[in-house]
Amino acid sequence: MNYSTIEFDGDTIDQERDGPRLHRQLNLVFNLMKDGRARTLDAIARQTGEPEASVSARLRDLRKPRFGGHTVKRKHIAQGVHEYQLEVGG
Asked: What is the DSSP letter of 50?
């Protein structure tokens, strides 16, 4: 799936300035996670080369209807550590 035409929202988002970076991050996270394997934010960040905070935000975006309304499951692993699993179209 390619999300490059969908605009991000938020009071601090400038589509021209931020859009290309956010779209790239969203596509990286989606393309990694679409296999359905559970991963920690750290693992996703290492595999995509993006910061954990950005990865977390893009996983939240994937739950939004305009970005597919996917199901993103979260499972507690250890103190402060969770695994995330994407169900495409979920």
From this structure: -
